[in-house]
Amino acid sequence: MTQSDGFGFGTQIRKSPYFDATVRWGAKGFSVYNHMYIPRDFGDPEQNFWNLVNEAILCDVAVERQVEITGPDAAKFVQMLTPRDLSKMAVGQCKYILITNAEGGILNDPILLRLAENHFWISLADSDILLWAQGVAVHSGMDVSICEPDVSPLQLQGPNSGLIMQQLFGEDIMGLKYYWLRELDLDGIPLIVSRTGWSSELGYELYLRDGSKGDQLWERIMAAGMQHGLKPGHTSSIRRIEGGMLSYHADADIHTNPYELGLDRLVNLDMDADFIGKAALRCIKEEGPKRQQVGLVIDGDPLTGPNTTFWQINVGCKAIGKVTSAVYSPRLKKNIALAMVNAEYANIGAEVEVVTKPAPTCATIVERPFYDPKKKIATA
Question: pTM (2 decimals)?
């Protein structure tokens, strides 16, 4: 019997190349994301947060599956998928993008990596963009190949992540700029390394290009990080809500458009290139969004964990929206939340009622993100 035999949903839920290593290093619980296991419990989530913001954590995020797009028309095809203007995206650069449908709804909010002139990876949030891209390609008339490669990322995040990267790759790695990537080899382990991550902290993602070396890579990083306080961990709901980072299916879905989220910067309606949803997004911009994402500070005792249902928001007797992600921040000593409300009620400083159990609670609409709004930590 192996250490991982205690976890199982069946063979339809895939295991990452790091699965056994995470169990060995203390993973107690898993969730499912992109049809794969993702570690969600290494003990106390508050301690995981402090490990992240004070030292460093290593997270198995192999669930961020890659959609690989290659071929003579790869750049043109990728531009068709997103409203963000990619015309100046260089080889070796990464960009946060949205993928929209014909109605302007968000299907995914991935990181796009450009490995070569006609070689892209779309590093996914939790939805089946491989199927979407392959379907779009069928009648596109473009010469592209689309697949899911053998690529599995790890996230090394936190203020000491740079020191650990230096120990692994040498001083030269410190020249890697925010949202850029390099192709590297670590003792025979083939990698793409990017200065990105889902934490709002200084961090790196290491994209393993050979799944058979997952255990070896995990142990190599943990060994290098021991003297720098590295701990095994999981993506922190506390830190990502502090930073106003979206979780797809919670804070956005197919019925959410970029303007509701204040992500106008990721939509260029003036570029010559066409993209899916362009006409719909033009209409939404002209009419103005009917909803708007806001931050909330919720009164009361500290929440004991993230919300597991959408909490209704009321003004008087009228429902005006819902809380999408809520958590207690031990650093801010507040219950903080991301919420979607009717646009006419999205007023900073306004008081609302959140329908929580066992009783409704008062809350105040505030600016987001809640911490480090200029992202000085991640971009330093």
Answer: 0.96
